[in-house]
Fold these 2 entries.
Entry 1:
Amino acid sequence: MTILRTILIFLLLPMGLSATVIRTGPDSLLQHALDRARPGDTVIVAPGHYLQHEIVIRTPITLIGENFPVFDGENKYQLFVITASGVCVQGITVQNTGRSSMVDMAGIRLQNAARVRVSNCKVLNTTYGIYLQNSKYCVIENNEIRSSATDELQAGNGVHAWKSDSLLIRDNNISGHRDGIYFEFVTGSAIIGNVSTNNVRYGLHFMFSHNDGYSRNTFRHNGAGVAVMYSKKVIMTGNTFSEHWGDASYGILLKDISDSRIEHNTFARNTMGVYMEGSSRIHIARNTFSANGWAMRVQASCEGNTIETNNFLDNSFDVATNGTLMLNAWRNNYWDKYEGYDLNRDGTGDVPYHPVSVYSILSERIPSTMILYRSFLTNIVDQAEKIMPSIIPDQLRDDSPQTKKWKL
Amino acid sequence: MKLYLPALTLLLFLASACGRKYEPIAYGKDACAHCKMTIMDKRFSAEIVNPKGRVFKFDDIACLRGFDIEPGSLLFVNDYSGKAAGPLLAEKAVFLHHESFKSPMAGNFPAFADEAAATALKDSLGLDFLTWEKLP
């Protein structure tokens, strides 16, 4: 034990000797302190209001704010640019970046950097909150990233990552941007435990980003929850998608996705829970779809997907599709609209369930027929169609619907 | 009487053909007809009005190009600089192409009303002017 301690002390000693602590306040220029600092130093920023901008961190240092010193861009400038690897920034407030159509103005920008950690910061009223460009092994955690995208056309994204790899975006609170988190050409990254609300377009948005995952996030009241587009191998587990209402509003929008997993998520009160188009080999299991307009909308361009052991509760429509061809497997789901029976009491219904109702087909072809939805006539047509399917795609059926709700 | 009907149809046809025009995009609400994304960026949005007058809106010129365009459709693109009074006809606009424009669907084709409007950007990025036919 003592040997271990001695080794530890010896390991830490050189660092303790060489690293110095630099203190700076609102009266002096932070840039000077940063330029003076040697690698491994710590710069402590005193509380106050700093009208300093375009602060570039070129050496691997630790920047700590005491009691959230405020860096203000006066709606004209961008604030921090980190170009060195191994930088750690924590406990500062950056606010009011400028807006420009050519330069993406960011509160904190990481440029060609690796192993950078931005934690416990407040990023307020910025065009782009935290912008990662060509960066690797970076951690963005516990930040409060808030803006009010009133001029929604010019708004940027809360956390914006472009051409990056191995990022961890964790436990941030993001609201009021165009997209809460945006990934373009980002690989091998994880998005965990964030709360993304009230963003104008998407809570989270993937473009051309492979081998990523997002778990335990909450997406609420965005234009749409999450859009995953043109990506492969994306793992989506344990998230909550709620309150996404509108014409082009989805819990998850999947467009040209393959080899992915959607498991243990909750979709509640969205216009559409999951919308998928051109997507293949996706495993959708153990999710709860409750009180959505459409729980799932699976276009005929999707194939090889497996939808099993989900709960479908109180949705206006369980499934909608736009064709008769169905190349996906549906099994062992619980459907609250199932009216079959289970004579041998094994928990599996004895007659198949057809989740596509006549009305979802009709409204797909002629949207204005929705005006007759829930009318007496509609119910009769629905009942008749259940006995003798003629309009609904009869290949789309669950042969083993569950009679008891899954405990998820 | 015999002549009335064809004349009337012709008149109606002409009227409908003349009536075809750009329909404003509700940014933040309308979805792209090709990629289903909500259209947010004024600088890259585009629109097709087909011969029957049906309107398709796009968030990126690349989406418009990926769409099945009926012959005889009107193709509109928006001015990247935002200085033009209205949308531009795609065949008459001047285009650039560079990765740093970062359009929503990575088409990265900004459109300009004329060569003068695009010259500064063209020179600073070292690009060539492109026309609608020559887009990659």
Note: Chain A has four helices and 38 strands.
Entry 2:
Amino acid sequence: MDTASPKHAKAAEAFLRDEENTDWHNETLWFVRSKRDRAAQSLPEWEQLREQASQIKAHTLSKLDDYLIQLEENARQNGIIVHWAANGDEHNQIVLDIMRKHKATKIVKSKSMLTEECHLNPFLIKEGIEVIDTDLGERIVQLRNEPPSHIVLPAIHLKKKHIGDLFHIHLGTEAGATDPQYLTEAARIHLRQKFLLADVAITGVNFAIAETGGFVVCTNEGNADLGAHLAKVHIACMGIEKVIPQAEHLGVFLRLLARSATGQAVTTYSSHFRKPAPGQEMHLVLVDNGRTRQLASPDFRNSLKCIRCGACMNTCPVYRRSGGHSYHTAVAGPIGSILAPNIDMKEYADLPFASTLCGSCTNVCPVKIDIHQQLYKWRQVLGEAGAVESTKKVGMTGMDVLFSHPWLYRFAGRAGRWFMQKFPSLANKPSLNPWAIHRDMPKPPEQSFRDWYAQQNQKKNG
Amino acid sequence: MNVGLFIPCYVDQFYPNVGIATLRLLESLGVKVVFPMEQTCCGQPMANSGFQSLSAGCDKNFIRNFADCDVVVGPSGSCVLHLKEHLHSDEQPAEATRLRNNVYELCEFLTDVLKVEELPKARFPHRVGLHTSCHGQRGLKLSSMSELVAPKFSKPEHLLNLVDGLDLVPLSQPDECCGFGGTFCVFEEALSSKMGKDRVDDHLRHGAEVITGGDMSCLMQLEGVLRRQKSPVRVMHIAEILTSGN
């Protein structure tokens, strides 16, 4: 397997060409990170909560099969129809079959990163089904034929002006309108019609509780509730890692989730679903799609603790300046860069390198995933699998030879400094040295430290 | 205590004054230091690029050079962190473990081992911005981190506060990454440069005349941006500031 091209670097470069927009994106996400900091600082027990959440998740993952079986049994007893999907295709087919069974053609969907991961929307649309995303940000990106750029803030890459132009075309709002209140109301009228006419509502699942067979869906807009209560059929789709053992564990996660995601004390709607309402049908689809493979890998198992709060994206200095789409995967940012290569190693080989390994992601993670360390480990896996650019491997092999032989290193150092002194314009030529596109090289000194040290010793002894 | 001075390859080649300042600083504090002449690189560039397997030669060379030393001290948080986490030897596992546990970043060594509480000669009457490098801060825990709910502390700041006349400027984002990131600076050139520029801006906005830190690689990144901007603001390694006035 040769060379996955560094797609992220190219996309980031394109994003950075509009520096003003990059600055705005960076500052907006930093604002969210700052809100998160204030919310975390307001709880003296914050670090204990993180530890507790991490341990509950570690325990659950260690007995995942038991808890999933318990969840299935209890859900069935509650009258929920439970399905298992090994991968995205199976998941999509299950949803389609339910639609066909009910001769249904219209879906309202609340935000679910799992359905993004499985590419459910394009699949259903191809089958002639109308799928409407009802989270405002998701509806916006859907109208633009784009995937979300952030798991919590799907349209964070867009400004009010973009939304105004988009709504003018699709929803008939006044041209040039940018007032958020006006635009939101237009979206609300548009979405209400969709809610009223939908046959089926699809929601994600934030937490499923093995003990009760119920599940919890968190939204700030109440769109999941509106959809699920109005439609005859409610299909909830979840990755198998979303199960937690008992209802009493919920408090830990609900306190962490909203604070980490947006700096709110709690998500506006944390809705508990346990059984179908009279006359309704409720389905729960449990999806693996690579998760058991990740579970089997001690190095990467921890990533399954993720509760999809997005805090690692908001803090990541790379994400803030390159935008979610540069990651070319459903879940962007640091956590996505761990999850994506597990799904397709070649396609996403560039992502574990789209990081400076600064470690901020690990520190904000409410369930204490060692994100930057897992990125480092992925790099090793990819290096060994030959999935990184061949130029990089050549360079690193050269460095190995250079640094393994002190005499060669000394010689090369001297030669390099001599070259930089004699031909500074070549050393600073952007086409030969990417460093020099936006930065200057250091001024090469006459003497290395070791030459100076040897000279001092000679003086002392001689 | 036999202290080995570890001068990372790029400091050796591009910033000899940082090595000289580190040596003089340690000697001025009464530490006898040796510099093993055959040392090269810690192996981090290969490891961070996905080729930890290609750093075995570096590891071997490092262990050979520092075998006689009780502790190793280096003026670079990033290289020291790499050694602490990854120095490895199939032939000499015990020696690798011993060195991993006894390698110190300079500020860490000064505050934790030597317990430096005064630097009587140090004088640096300038407005200084401290760039807290990620590997030093979050990896070696040289200072508290803005993401965590925990008491505030900073080993480099403690040392800078011992310098007469030095005015430490506050920053808006005290622990934002500079964007160097090893080979990231080349393979993600556009992003890396933008991060460097933003980091420099924070220091400039707060009136820094000099930007300092414990990691010359981050400072090289910031210097690259400053020189391109033809800025009069300089970068100096913390060892150079702590020895100024001597």
Note: Residues 405-461 of chain A form one domain.
